[in-house]
Design a protein that fits this description.
single chain; mainly alpha; 2 domains; about 60% helix; DUF6899
Length: about 220
């Protein structure tokens, strides 16, 4: 969710800076509670539901009891959304905060030496399970939060896992031979230097079936 403004937007917006401090605190606390790989699921679920429940209280102008890193994040999400003065403004801020949270926890775990990498398939799947759980269990709140968790899940697939899958295809080969599939095509700059990969949608053919990266050509950026 890149829509939350920053100083790049108008030279003065501090939404991201405010949220970053609360996200960092919550991510640090949560990383410390993750003892084995899949314990991440329950820790994330607890965080997501707590933030959602507290945010609803703030949005409804109700009394919020207790103090925790999750409550602090919910409070900051609501506070930075208030000046926009329209219903549901907090949803974009929530999306940004949770999107940053699910990236910061792996970064913290990796920096500490507890994990070898910020992204592995088990981590992706566990994160998706927690986001799906949050989506299902916040629908009853009726204030749009369930849709945010669904959107974060979809964005995480598109922005992170798709690129990670491409790396694995290059490393180990593709596994799709259905009637229709995608194949990678290399992207290079005008000097022929490698930039990355793009997907091309294809109908199965003998020419491309055994290729992981299309040999027909490259996309050149000018």
């Amino acid at each position: 969710m890149p829509y939350v403004p920053s100083k790049k937007t108008d030279g003065k917006s501090t939404d991201r800076e405010v949220l970053a401090r609360a996200v960092e605190n919550l991510a640090t606390v949560t990383a410390g509670k993750i003892t084995n790989n899949l314990s991440l699921i329950k820790e994330y679920e607890r965080v997501f539901l707590k933030v959602a429940e507290k945010l609803k209280l703030f949005a409804k102008k109700e009394k919020v009891f207790g103090d925790s890193a999750s409550s602090d994040l919910a409070r900051e999400i609501y506070n930075v959304s208030e000046p926009y003065n329209y219903e549901g403004a907090y949803l974009g801020e929530l999306n940004y905060a949770i999107t940053r949270f699910i990236q910061r926890v792996p970064q913290i775990k990796t920096a500490s030496g507890a994990w070898a990498s910020e992204i592995r398939y088990w981590l992706y799947a566990a994160t998706i399970e927690a986001l799906t759980y949050a989506h299902m269990h916040t629908a009853e709140l009726g204030i749009g939060i369930s849709g945010v968790f669904e959107d974060i899940k979809d964005e995480y697939k598109r922005r992170v896992n798709t690129a990670y899958e491409a790396e694995q295809i290059v490393k180990s080969g593709d596994c799709y031979d259905a009637p229709y599939y995608t194949r990678l095509v290399e992207v290079v700059d005008r000097n022929g230097r490698h930039v990355g990969y793009q997907e091309v949608m294809l109908k199965r053919s003998d020419k491309t079936l055994k290729e992981d990266i299309l040999s027909a050509g490259k996309i050149v950026l000018y």
